[in-house]
Amino acid sequence: MTETLHLSRRRFLTYGSMAASAFALHPRSLFAQEVSAFVAKSRAAAANATITTIPLRSNVSVLAGSGGNIAVLTGFDGKLVVDSGYASSQPQVSNAMGLLSSSPIKQLINTHWHLDHTDGNEWIHATGAVITAHENTQKRLSTTQTITAFNAVVPAAPSGAIPTEVFTDKKVMHHNKVTLQLVHYMPAHTDSDISIHFEEPAILHTGDTWFNGAYPFIDYSSGGSIDGMIHAATRNLAITTGETMIIPGHGPIGNKAQLAKFRDVLVEAREKVAALKQQGKTLEETVAAKPMAKYDEKWGAGFVPATLFVGLVYQGV
Ligand SMILES: [Zn+2]
Questions:
Q1: pLDDT in tens, 214-263
Q2: Which terminus of the chain has a smaller tally of CB atoms within 10 A, N or C?
C-alpha cells in the first residue's frame, strides 16, 4: 500500500464511527502497545456482550452478540459449533450453549482466522472439541498477523486454539445425522474463508463473505479483495435456494434475496469506484465523491463506515 493510501485510511478511521472509536489509531512509535490495545479493547467490549439465541431449524441455532455469528448444531453426537466468538464472552456463550442442550461440544469449525471468530477456540477446545478449519486459518493463527486497515497487530493464538483438522479445497463432515459441506472460497474477505453448508436443513454459514445489510470489511492484508468478495457472493447465491436460511458472519439471519442485494451493492461499488479511479481521481477525491451515497446511511452504520468501504474497494480496482 502506498503511504498516501495508508495515511488517508488512517484519517478516515479517526472520523467518529463506531469502528474508529473501537480501533483508535496511534503513532507508529507505539506499535508494540497497539498490539495489545487492539486485542484488549475488542475483548473488553465483548466481556459485556449479551448473547441472543436464535433457533433456526433441525436443531441448529445461532448465538449472536460475541464477535461473529456462532452456529450450534445439537444432537446425540454432541454439539458441533461454527466459530467461537471472543474468549471474554465465555461465561455468556457457555451459558447459552448449555441452555440448548447439556451435551458436550465435540466439533468446532472456524469460518476464517479473524479474532472475533476464533478467540474462543481455546476454551472450547479445552472442553474436548476438535477444531477444523482451512489450512490458512491454521497458518495465520500460528503466527502474528497484521490487519493494515486498522493498523493493528494480532499475536499468534495459544496452541490450544489452533485448528488441528485442516483441508485445502473442501471437506465433508457428518454429525448428528446432518451432512456438512465445507468449501474454501477463492480469497475474498481473507484467504482463509470457508462456507459451511448444513445440507439437510438447508442452512448456510457464509462467514464474513457476507455482512447482511452492511458494508463488509475486506482484509487485503490477509489476501482479501473486492473481486474475491463479489465472487464469493456469487457462489453463495449459486448454492442457496429460496428455502435456505443464511447465516452471515455479521448481521441478522438472512435469505437469498438479501444476499442478492448485497452482491448487487458490491458490484455497483466496484463499477463506480473503478470509473472514478480510471478518471484519475485520488483515493480522497473518490471518497469525497460519495459514489455509494444512496446506501451510506444504512449500509455504513455498522462496523465498516462508508469512507472505509470505498477506500477498500478503491484499493482493489
Ligand atoms: Zn472477519
A1: 999 999 999 999 999 999 999 999 999 999 999 999 999 999 999 999 99
A2: N
- Residue 156, pLDDT score: 94
State in Å: Cα 189 to ligand 1 middle.
7
Ranges in the chain, pLDDT < 70: 1-36
Residue 300 Cα to ligand 1 midpoint, Å, equals 17
The rounded Å distance from CA 194 to ligand 1 centre is 11
Helix (H, G, I), strand (E, B) or coil at 136: helix
> Which residues have C-beta under 5 Å from ligand 1, the single-atom ion?
114, 208
Distance 114 CA to ligand 1 centre (A): 5
Cβ partners under 8 Å of residue 122, min gap 6: 87, 157, 158, 160, 161
What's residue 34's pLDDT?
Answer: 54
| Residue 267: per-residue pLDDT | 98
* Distance separating alpha carbons of residues 89 and 269, to the nearest angstrom: 35
Q: Retrieve residue 244's grid coordinates.
A: 435456505
State in Å: Cα 208 to ligand 1 middle. Answer: 5
What are the residue ranges spanned by the domains of the chain?
Answer: 32-269
Distance (Å) from CA 68 to ligand 1 centroid? 8
What's the 112 CA to ligand 1 centre distance in angstroms?
7
Let me know if domain 32-269 sits in CATH 2.60.40.10: no
